[in-house]
Task: inverse folding
């Protein structure tokens, strides 16, 4: 039986991690503590958890500002908070950035994961009521043609610096399980969307640019396919695995919701036009086919029968509902947006791309 009382969440100030902490406190009946270790890179925003801090802070929620590569700090966090569960979200997560600057990806995603695993092994010292859960991606499996799906048994074939760094970390997690008996689980998930997503990923880029009447960048021919999953559905899957997933197993998590990029961009134009009372052509005319991403994976599609059959998990939010919720959230949270825009991200994007 897992103890699941003092959870170390890494990267909890990022998009999925902040939604995860909110999901666990508000939807699961969890009675223990969450300690959020986050470096607050350009993608981390403590403001994304201000409601949790005021509602659950001190007693049930603590924030530790620091780097998962910092061995001394990580070991101290295990001791100070008597950690029995790790849920590891922290990563450099954006494929485009990994092409421009891979070093930080190797550092955080590989060395950071190793540092956490080693601290967990030393602190837990053979205990079996503990768990290291690692969040990974479908991108480790490579790229699909027009047909077929990624299964848990699909051989790894990562093709970007980002996915190669995630694949490396997955292997190290499993090595700690096989070699040292560390209790671990992994989830490999498809593209997430929802509130608090950093405006470098496709859906928030398009929403922001429509709001600002800027061009909508579509890479290559726009026919690359992604499988989209609402962030709370990902997080309910993570919670199911952390509670009942089998030690040493990998679970695929997907939306079973494949979209060509251009069709998704057009759907967002239609939704925004409806909200703004305009003709959709006003926004569709902003679509701009730009230079393709180098090594751009063509299609991702997840088979997630294993988690459905073993743990009874399923998606609960349709794409239509999820997009409406997401657009509504961005339209209402203008302060979060302007704070994000005035930060490091803006400087980076101007340096690398000029203003879009
Ligand atoms: P994100 O970029 O929004 O957030 C990452 C968080 O990690 C930030 O808060 C950042 O400050 C923190 N962080 C980065 N480096 C750190 C370090 N060295 N030490 C401590 N904290 C650090 O990412 P996300 O989209 O929320 O993704 C979370 C996880 O889910 C990642 O592991 C990613 O690979 C995985 N994933 C993401 C998606 C997706 O669609 N976004 C899909 C599948 C898997
Ligand atoms: O401006 C854009 N125009 C565009 O056409 C952006 C930002 C993206 N794209 C395309 C590239 C992809 O085919 O849209 C698709 C989605 O791109 P991203 O949002 O950058 O996501 P992706 O590269 O698919 O990776 C995401 O899903 C898997 C996350 O960023 C990863 O962290 C996760 O592992």
Result:
């Amino acid at each position: 039986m897992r103890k699941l009382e003092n959870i170390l969440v890494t990267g909890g100030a990022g998009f999925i991690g902040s939604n995860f902490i909110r999901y666990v406190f508000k939807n699961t009946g969890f009675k223990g503590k969450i300690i959020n270790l986050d470096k607050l890179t350009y993608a981390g925003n403590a403001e994304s958890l201000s409601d949790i801090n005021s509602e659950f802070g001190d007693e049930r929620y603590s924030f530790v500002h620091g780097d998962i590569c910092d061995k001394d700090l990580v070991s101290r966090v295990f001791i100070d908070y008597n950690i029995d569960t790790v849920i590891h979200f922290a990563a450099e997560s954006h494929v485009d950035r990994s092409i421009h600057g891979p070093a930080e990806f190797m550092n955080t995603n590989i060395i950071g994961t190793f540092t956490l695993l080693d601290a967990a092994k030393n602190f837990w010292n053979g205990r079996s009521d503990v768990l290291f859960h690692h969040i990974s991606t479908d991108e480790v499996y490579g790229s699909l043609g027009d047909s077929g799906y990624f299964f848990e048994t699909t051989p790894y074939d990562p093709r970007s610096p980002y996915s190669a760094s995630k694949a490396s970390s997955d292997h190290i997690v499993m090595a700690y399980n096989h070699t040292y008996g560390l209790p671990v689980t992994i989830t490999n998930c498809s593209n997430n969307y929802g509130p608090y997503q950093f405006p470098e990923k496709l859906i928030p880029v398009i929403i922001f640019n429509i709001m600002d009447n800027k061009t909508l960048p579509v890479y290559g021919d726009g026919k690359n396919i992604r499988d989209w999953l609402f962030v709370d559905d990902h997080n309910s899957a993570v919670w199911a695995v952390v509670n009942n997933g089998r030690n040493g197993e990998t679970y695929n998590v997907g939306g079973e919701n494949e979209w060509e990029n251009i069709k998704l961009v057009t759907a967002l134009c239609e939704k925004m036009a409806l909200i703004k009372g305009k003709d959709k052509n006003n926004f569709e005319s902003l679509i701009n086919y730009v230079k393709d991403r180098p090594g751009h994976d063509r299609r991702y599609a997840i088979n997630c029968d294993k988690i459905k059959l073993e743990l009874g998990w399923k998606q609960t939010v349709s794409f239509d509902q999820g997009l409406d919720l997401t657009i509504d959230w961005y339209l209402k949270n203008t302060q979060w947006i302007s704070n994000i825009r005035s930060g490091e991200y803006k400087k980076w994007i101007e340096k690398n791309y000029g203003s879009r």
Q: What stands out?
A: The domain at 6-196+228-256+295-317 is CATH 3.40.50.720 (Rossmann fold). The chain has a mean pLDDT of 95. The pocket of thymidine-5'-diphospho-beta-D-xylose (ligand 2) is lined by residues 93-95, 137, 139, 191, 201-202, 205, 217-219, 224, 226, 261, 293 (CB under 6 Å).
